[in-house]
Amino acid sequence: MTATTADTVPAACPRCRSGKIEVRSKSPVAGVWTVFGCPTCLYVWRSTEPEENVNPDKYPVAFRLRPEDLPDLQVVPPIPARGSSS
Ligand SMILES: [Zn+2]
After folding, report:
1. Is 69 helix (H, G, I), strand (E, B) or coil?
2. Distance from residue 14's CA to the centre of ligand 1 (Å)
């Protein structure tokens, strides 16, 4: 059991490497898992996930984000208003 590492807040976000990491939730049994969240790129992960999900150096290159690029990313299309016909 890795009770000591589950509570350790990571130094950087695996996806964008932002140093600002928030604790979002903790396991009911203390020290089993912790959910961390990155307010910069909105990535959320659990401490018990595989290395490629939690380690910035092993996170897949294709999915990495740079904080400075976030404002330029394509916006998800808005959901159209409901039609008046039924
Ligand atoms: Zn991030």
Report:
1. helix
2. 7
What is the rounded distance in angstroms from the CA atom of residue 80 to the CA atom of residue 65?
Answer: 28
Which pLDDT value is given to residue 63? 96
Task: Give the distance (Å) from ligand 1 centre to CA of residue 21.
Answer: 8
| Through-space distance between the first and last CA atoms of the chain, rounded to whole angstroms | 57
CA of 74 to the centre of ligand 1 (A): 17
Look up the pTM and report it: 0.78
Instruction: Determine whether 74 is exposed, middle or buried from the number of CB atoms within 10 Å of its CB (0-12, 13-18, 19+).
Output: exposed
pLDDT tens profile 23-44: 999 999 999 999 999 999 999 9
Q: Domain ranges in the chain?
A: 3-67
Classify residue 73 by its DSSP letter: S
